[in-house]
């Protein structure tokens, strides 16, 4: 496969809008315009006019867009460069008879050409980039707002505001929606993809280490995140060849030396007129080449030799690319080309000429993605392109003090948008100050201690202005003279708050679940069916999105008063997590289609992590409250996290509980488990049960009394304990097992080994009417689980007026009161379980009392009507769910009660 090059240039500077006299910081913009932005624009126009197959993506950040579109600021830039031509003329004359003549003459001609070109464009560089985009040479895109470091912001509301502010400013200036968005510092964290997708973004750039740690593992240069946004990972080796001065091209001895500028080399009196307040600084007139390490003994710069070397390096790089396979993503700060590496634009011009000879095809990200319909789906971890590939640069001992200040301001901003008393001008300016305080530039500078006093002064000034505006003690018009970024910003739209749900009336509820009858893997599907049905019975509009049987088409039907949509089951991809992500993407796509037809929703309620990505996506897209019911956890099911898949699932559960507005568990045991694992405080709303009619007939007559188990055949359900207990009973009995699972073969072997092959009956999956017949004629229903978040089967046994015998695992301990409405044993205790099974056979009186009390408990405490009412109260923010169970008196678990 021939190599394809996605060259991506990210242009960004901290925002500055000087008022009155010139300030030092504005020189950053003037230098970048003269050395990078305008030379790059000129280069791209030249190679396009020459007919070369040029494709490059250029990101322009919000602060840079605001400055480049500020006519007054660009006029100051032109004036500064015009003044510099005077210095360049003087230096060219002074050095005419020296070895520096060629360098001085080159810079003199270059500066005059730049000023002339700025005049020709009337200072409008953005129009030039827009024309290249129209020609198809450049794919323009933008960055998040003021370049905020998104993972360290305090809330999704702030992250969304940064993303949307950048997109809105780009759209205002270019009249088109960006397909990509540059994540500042390539800083990613799980969940950001949903905010990007909600803003209409299709791709972003990630560090190679971030994609390299994805799960499932990704072999290529790109992957689709669970939210459906493509992550393009930079090619480390190719990128380093260009940006690394020590090992790459920019350190070549023929290239111009960055650190020897006439602003520092000449006597101060000779350059004062071109400095700010007499402070030495760069003028852009640099007449030395790198020559060797250190700043002494430098030789004169030779422009022709440097350009020839740039051509050699371009040929070399093209050949390196030719040896690669597939997509090579090469993202760089645009300021590298021209500012830091002076010959960078010449190198790129030569590279575009060399790529066709090397058989390398330049592409833009959107162009490449359009030809990739089946990218692998993977979950990316948090990461950045900073030191260590993590967030340590932006959260360190030098800058950690600022984050609590920013988070407090973010919270205050959310409060402000709910206060109608603040005039829009005040609110909008407060939002600008907050966005500017969030810029990643300030913690970066503080960490590397390059201009610490300036960075601290800037961030504190923005926060001070924010709080003054928030308190009504500042005039927004005066502050806006300096901080006029994003002129059309609307704070109430940007930091929008959801209105509270109505205190009464029907709700429009969307439930997401990968299980729903008849596709029942465990008890989750039945829970969704019964809860949704009870909500519909109470007058609420309930829609359910689930998955169809394998090979079945997508469908829609009315079930128990609910509108149920089934998406087609995605094909198996060899990795369970990848399959789940595809399923969630299909759920989101269907939800969008339903909404497009006019459906409205008040609540999105997802059940377990398997529908969590879809829930998070719809919360981000629609601004709906997200409710998550956690029915079980990966750590609880397995006793620990032991492999990469389990770790990935654990992280999915963590992300869902962190993103959801409210978390529900169906038992106190699960609440403790969720709190311990994810540091959230859930609301307990117990599972429910419907009372079935009694008198069902047994489908088959057995010679001996029997105990009944129904559920999955997996280790944590403890069926093996029940079989071993059957072997230790004093009285003959059978065990009827309904359900399927990976442990079935092992359980059959166990029964045969214990000589119980004719006493243990495996029914497989059975319909509800057969289940009722087997259950209602059993001596008891067994729930011998080793791990059980709730235990819906125990409730079904009790509702059937059959004695229930459970292990004291998880939620089962909360359902059954030992010796009152059922019996409990220690999980995994074979002898204790056998003794209780014998007890029920020997004492039909005890069995009858337990059965009657069990049905009464099921009716009184676990009716779906009451559970639906508790759930609606939680939706509305005033949950009435009991956080503690009634204090029933019970015997010690495992102790035999008297008749």
Structure, described:
The radius of gyration is 34 Å and the shape is elongated. The chain has four domains: 4-144 and 236-364, 7-stranded beta/alpha barrel, CATH 3.20.110; 402-494, Families 57/38 glycoside transferase, middle domain (immunoglobulin/albumin-binding domain-like, Up-down Bundle), CATH 1.20.1430; 508-684, Rossmann fold; 706-862, Glycogen Phosphorylase B (Rossmann fold). It has 34 helices and 23 strands. By secondary structure, it is of the alpha/beta class. The model is unreliable at 879-893 and 895-899 (pLDDT under 50).
Q: How do the helices and strands line up, and which of them pair or pack?
A:
Blueprint: E1 4-11, H1 26-49, E2 56-60, H2 62-68, H3 71-94, H4 101-121, H5 125-135, E3 138-143, H6 156-174, E4 181-182, H7 192-198, E5 203-206, H8 208-212, E6 222-224, E7 230-233, H9 236-243, H10 262-265, H11 268-271, H12 303-322, E8 327-333, H13 344-358, E9 361-362, H14 365-370, H15 402-416, H16 424-437, H17 441-448, H18 452-470, H19 476-480, H20 491-494, E10 508-512, H21 524-537, E11 541-547, E12 555-559, E13 562-567, H22 576-596, E14 603-607, H23 612-622, E15 626-630, H24 634-638, H25 644-659, E16 662-665, H26 668-678, E17 683-684, E18 706-710, H27 719-728, E19 734-738, H28 744-753, E20 760-764, H29 768-776, E21 780-783, H30 792-799, E22 804-807, H31 812-815, E23 823-825, H32 830-842, H33 844-861, H34 864-875
Helix pairs in contact: 1-3, 1-5, 1-13, 3-4, 7-23, 12-13, 15-16, 15-18, 16-18, 17-18, 21-34, 22-23, 23-25, 27-32, 30-33
């Amino acid at each position: 496969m021939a190599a394809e090059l996605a060259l991506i240039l990210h242009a960004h500077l901290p925002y500055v809008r000087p008022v009155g006299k010139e300030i030092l910081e504005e020189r950053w913009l003037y230098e970048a315009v003269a050395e990078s932005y305008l030379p790059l624009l000129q280069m791209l126009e030249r190679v396009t006019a020459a007919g070369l197959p040029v494709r490059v993506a250029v990101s322009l950040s919000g602060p840079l867009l605001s400055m480049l579109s500020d006519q007054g600021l660009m006029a100051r830039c032109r004036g500064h460069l015009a003044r510099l031509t005077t210095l360049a003329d003087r230096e060219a004359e002074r050095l005419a008879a020296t070895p520096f003549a060629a360098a001085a003459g080159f810079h003199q001609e270059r500066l005059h050409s730049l000023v002339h070109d700025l005049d020709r464009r009337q200072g409008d560089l953005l129009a030039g980039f827009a024309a290249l985009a129209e020609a198809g040479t450049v794919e323009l895109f933008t960055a998040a707002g003021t370049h905020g470091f998104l993972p360290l912001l305090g809330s999704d509301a702030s992250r969304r505001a940064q993303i949307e502010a950048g997109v809105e400013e780009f759209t205002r200036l270019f009249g088109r929606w960006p397909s990509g968005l540059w994540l500042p510092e390539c800083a990613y964290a799980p969940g950001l993809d949903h905010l990007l997708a909600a803003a209409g973004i299709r791709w972003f750039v990630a560090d190679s280490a971030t994609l390299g740690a994805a799960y499932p593992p990704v072999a290529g240069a790109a992957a689709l995140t669970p939210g459906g946004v493509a992550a393009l990972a930079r090619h480390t080796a190719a990128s380093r060849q260009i940006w690394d001065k020590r090992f790459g091209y920019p350190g070549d001895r023929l290239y111009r030396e960055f650190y020897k500028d006439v602003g520092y080399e000449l006597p101060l009196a000779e350059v004062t007129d071109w400095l700010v307040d007499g402070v030495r600084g760069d003028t852009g007139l640099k007449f030395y080449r790198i020559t060797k390490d250190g700043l002494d003994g430098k030789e004169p710069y030779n422009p022709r030799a440097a350009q020839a070397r740039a051509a050699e390096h371009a040929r070399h790089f093209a050949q390196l690319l030719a040896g690669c396979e597939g997509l090579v993503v090469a993202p760089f700060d645009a300021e590298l080309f021209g500012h830091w590496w002076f010959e960078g634009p010449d190198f790129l011009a030569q590279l575009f000429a060399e790529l066709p000879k090397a058989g390398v095809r330049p592409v833009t990200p959107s162009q490449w993605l359009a030809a990739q319909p089946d990218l692998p789906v993977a979950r990316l971890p948090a990461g950045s392109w900073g030191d260590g590939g993590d967030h340590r640069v932006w959260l360190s001992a030098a800058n950690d003090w600022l984050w609590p200040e920013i988070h407090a301001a973010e919270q205050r901003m959310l409060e402000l948008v709910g206060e109608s008393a603040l005039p829009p001008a005040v609110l909008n300016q407060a939002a600008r100050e907050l966005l500017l305080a969030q810029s990643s530039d300030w913690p970066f500078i503080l960490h590397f201690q390059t201009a610490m006093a300036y960075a601290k002064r800037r961030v504190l000034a923005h926060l001070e202005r924010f709080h003054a505006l928030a308190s009504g003690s500042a005039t927004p018009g005066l502050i806006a003279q300096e901080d006029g970024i994003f002129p059309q910003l609307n704070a109430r739209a940007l930091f929008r708050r959801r209105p509270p749900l109505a205190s009464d009336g029907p709700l429009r509820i969307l439930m997401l679940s990968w299980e729903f009858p008849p596709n029942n893997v465990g008890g989750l599907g039945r829970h969704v069916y019964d809860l949704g049905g009870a909500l519909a019975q109470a007058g609420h509009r309930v829609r359910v999105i689930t998955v169809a049987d394998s090979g079945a088409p997508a469908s829609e039907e009315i079930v128990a008063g609910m509108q149920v949509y089934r998406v087609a089951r995605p094909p198996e991809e060899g990795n369970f997590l990848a399959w789940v992500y595809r399923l969630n993407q299909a759920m989101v796509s269907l939800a969008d289609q339903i909404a497009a037809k006019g459906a409205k929703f008040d609540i999105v309620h997802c059940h377990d992590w398997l529908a969590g990505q879809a829930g998070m996506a719809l919360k981000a897209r629609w601004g709906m409250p997200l409710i998550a019911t956690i029915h079980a956890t990966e750590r609880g099911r397995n006793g620990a996290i032991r492999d990469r898949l389990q770790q990935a699932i654990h992280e999915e559960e963590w992300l869902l509980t962190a993103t959801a507005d409210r978390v529900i568990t169906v038992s106190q045991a699960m609440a403790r488990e969720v709190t311990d694992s994810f540091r959230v405080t859930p609301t307990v709303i117990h599972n429910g049960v419907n009372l079935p009619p009694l008198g069902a007939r047994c489908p088959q007559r057995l010679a001996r009394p029997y105990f009944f188990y129904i559920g999955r055949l997996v280790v944590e359900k403890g069926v093996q304990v029940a079989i071993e207990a059957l072997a230790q009973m004093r009285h003959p009995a059978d065990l009827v097992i309904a359900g399927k699972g990976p442990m079935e073969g092992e359980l059959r072997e166990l029964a045969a080994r214990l000589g119980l092959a004719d006493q243990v009956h495996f029914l497989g999956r059975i319909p509800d009417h057969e289940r009722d017949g087997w259950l209602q004629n059993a001596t008891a229903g067994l729930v011998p689980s080793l791990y059980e978040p709730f235990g819906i089967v125990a409730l079904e046994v009790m509702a059937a007026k059959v004695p229930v015998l459970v292990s004291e695992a998880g939620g089962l301990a909360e359902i059954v009161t030992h010796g009152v409405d059922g019996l409990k044993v220690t999980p995994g205790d074979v002898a204790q379980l056998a003794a209780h099974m014998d007890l029920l056979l020997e004492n039909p009186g005890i069995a009858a009392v337990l059965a009657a009390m069990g049905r009464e408990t099921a009716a009184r405490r676990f009716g779906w009507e009451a559970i639906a009412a508790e759930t609606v109260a939680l939706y509305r923010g005033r949950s009435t769910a009991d956080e503690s169970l009634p204090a029933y008196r019970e015997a010690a678990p495992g102790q035999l009660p008297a008749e």
